[in-house]
Amino acid sequence: MIQTSGVIICLGYIFGLLFTAVPWGGVWILVLGILGAILFRRRTSSQQLAQKAEKAGSKNKAVPNTWQTNPHPRIWLAAGLVGLLATLYFQWRVPQPGAKDISQFVPPGNSSNQEQLVIVRGEVASNPRLTRSQRGQFWLEATQIDEVKNEKGSAGVPKGVTGKLYVTVPILQATGLYPSQQIAVTGILYKPKAASNPGGFDFQKFLKQEGTFAGLIGRQINVLDQERKWGWWQIRERIVRSQVRWLGIPEGPLVSAMVLGSKAVDLPYDIRDLFVQAGLAHALAASGFQTSLILSVILQLTRGAKKGTQFTLGFLALIIFLSLTGFQPAVLRAVIMGFAALVGLLLKRKVKQLGSLLLAATLLLVFNPLWIWDLGFQLSFLATLGLIVTVPALVNRLVWLPPAIASLIAVPLAATLWTLPVQLSVFGVVPSYSLLLNVVSTPLISIISIGGIISALVGLIWTQAGSFLAAVLHYPTDWLIKLVEFFSKLPGNSVAVGSISIWQLLAIYALIILVWLVPWWQRRWWVANVIVIGLVFIPLWHSTNTLFRITVLESGTEPIIVVQERGTVTVINSGDEGTGRFTILPFLQQQGVNQINWAIATDFQGNESNAWLELLQRLPIKNFYEYSPNPENSIATQAIQQELQKHQGFYQPMAVGQAVKTGSIVAQLINAQLPILQLQILDQNWLLVGNVKSKEVQQLVKNGSLPRPQVLWCSPQSLKDLVIALQPQVAIASSVNFDPKVLSELNQSQTKLFFTGRDGAIQWTPDGQFEAFIEAAENKSSIL
């Protein structure tokens, strides 16, 4: 009775936090608690009457008092109240910048282009890491800000500030920094941007989860305090250095990441991405496997000792492991469950894993309710839940296999079943060979993890001995990397199915829970599988075969247009290096796109089409058209042709004025120097114009070189002249800041204006209006 009541109260708290995604979520959870109380009050009353009737009919027959096992209606009401309080507690814990927060001193405009240099003093809060752009990154607890002096004297006086900063500096400037060090960083403050494109990374949300509201692009660091204070980072650094010394890179950091977790180790991004894309991201996250391994070793070594000694040593080992890996949700969950197992050992009682998991979730969410929306937290608990409730059922169905092999298959399959819906909701991609790769790689991962922990312990005592033991892991680690590379290169290694909606996510988990709890569904699990597959692929099939949508992505100074036309995809321009990976690919994955049918390159900004190679390495392109290929870019062109040949793609150089027809689109480069690209899409005329001067606009209009379009894309410098001259229905510019006077003049015209820097991606469908992504996202979030 008490256990059931505790479970309901804990679930009420967790569901209360989940209901923060719904307007008036706390009220709804309270209403559900009241309905539960009414429902179970009637049920218990009817059971009481039935019991009395049975007693009256047979006084000598013992009747089991089953109704008392049902929770009292007051418990359901209490759970509803706890859920209501959870929503209020969540809102109270949402980080907000204080009056003296460093973000309050960011120059107006919310842009990193403001050239007001500042000097920020503070304490380093993390070890420097290498970013994808090859800069050093670390967190800084700010204490003082001072504007840099100019020729006229001081631009301001030092001010005391609070808050944490996301700092990036040249890699050499970050070398040698360590936590608790006092430094002064000269650079430019900026406020982070929210996601500007569908599927894009929300930098603003990421920093807010860390309690940070501003970033600093550093140029120079002055160290104010050379004194080295002791910290867990020193032990962590000693372990990593010991393992990297003879193993080298990337094997050394990989072994360290499998022991301490990738968040505690600066693992190269190519290895990190390789494991994530193959479906082995969990191998790089310190969590339950390492915790179980540590406890097993401690208990085996002390099996002849008293229970109190075993508890103390196990407790200390878990605390040390937690301190080394950092207070991450997945590690905290594993450590709390490890503590529960130790308590059970001390009290000589069997601990229920499901109860300890629920207790761990509740405790962590009381400590930090914002973790309810942390992806690592969600995946960690769902995977553990799958291991607890689904592995036994799978092993029973695989009884015809040897137990070791059955367990080897059941563990990754159960974890995948429970985590895949969330992954589809966030990423929209299925790693096709993930299950098989997990089964094949588990022995190697186990060997590397066990050997890594042993070498780490020895390395703390004797560095060279730890390096020697780590060197023994060279071949297993190398084999693991090659195995992951092999699977990642197989055809169809990842399939984009598109991001599933909230209702699809809830329906899939409802079916999974029914198969877990209801015997009728357990016997018909294959029916649930068919329904789940239908829930994912039928909406995708319908959308793919009926959707016609044009998306102008926010990508800086070059127009990137994606046209989805009933199952075919056309991409126009690719932007500079990095745009393919961080802008175009995430958008296409969210839309469930697995190939590009037509690609048109015009090289608006002379960036040598670097992003096309990024796209080709992940998605096949069937037809590639390049306008006026530059002989100076012959190396890039050859690389594109080689990648196209791998997927039997077609390459065609195009001359100025030559038209390209792709489905319902006719594209034609009118001028390669400015440049000017004309698109005929259904009955609309689109015009993409580069940076042209006012005199050039007048001359082009006079010569008739610029046809009047319904939709215009142009650079902000030429927006006013082009809108006045061409009078389009819609004009799209790439600026976030614009002269208010000019903007006021343009607003008096009939042209509807969009700025991708402010509005994000712009989308249009034939039966709808142009829609800004950021505005649509805000409306959606307000509804949810």
Structure description:
The chain has 784 residues and is α/β, with parallel strands linked by helices. It has 29 helices and 24 strands. The protein has an 8-stranded mixed β-sheet. A hairpin with a 4-residue loop joins strand 2 and strand 3. Helix 13 packs antiparallel against helix 15 and helix 15 crosses helix 16. The radius of gyration is 30 Å and the shape is globular. The two termini are 36 Å apart. About 1% of the residues have low confidence. It is a multi-pass membrane protein.
Characteristics:
OB fold (Dihydrolipoamide Acetyltransferase, E2P), 784 residues, alpha/beta, seven-stranded mixed beta sheet, membrane, 29 helices, eight-stranded mixed beta sheet, Competence_DNA_uptake
**In order across it, which strands form the biggest sheet?**
15-14-13-12-11-10-23-24
* CATH homologous superfamily designation of the largest domain: Ribonuclease Z/Hydroxyacylglutathione hydrolase-like
Q: What separation lies between the terminal Cα atoms?
A: 36 Å
Number of helices: 29
Looking at the structure, what is the overall shape? Answer: globular
When the domains are counted, the total is: 5
Protein topology:
Blueprint: H1 2-18, H2 25-57, H3 73-93, E1 118-124, E2 129-130, E3 135-147, E4 159-160, E5 164-170, H4 171-174, E6 182-190, H5 203-209, E7 212-223, H6 232-247, H7 251-260, H8 269-278, H9 288-301, H10 307-325, H11 329-347, H12 353-367, H13 375-389, H14 391-397, H15 403-426, E8 429-431, H16 434-461, H17 463-471, H18 474-488, E9 494-496, H19 502-517, H20 519-523, H21 525-546, E10 548-553, E11 560-565, E12 568-572, H22 579-590, E13 596-601, H23 610-616, E14 621-627, H24 634-646, E15 650-654, E16 659-662, E17 665-671, E18 676-681, E19 684-689, H25 694-703, E20 711-714, H26 719-726, E21 730-733, H27 740-747, E22 752-755, H28 756-759, E23 762-764, E24 771-772, H29 773-783
Parallel strand pairs: 5-7, 12-13, 13-14, 14-15, 19-20, 20-21, 21-22
Antiparallel strand pairs: 1-3, 1-6, 2-3, 3-4, 3-5, 6-7, 8-9, 10-11, 10-23, 11-12, 16-17, 17-18, 18-19, 23-24
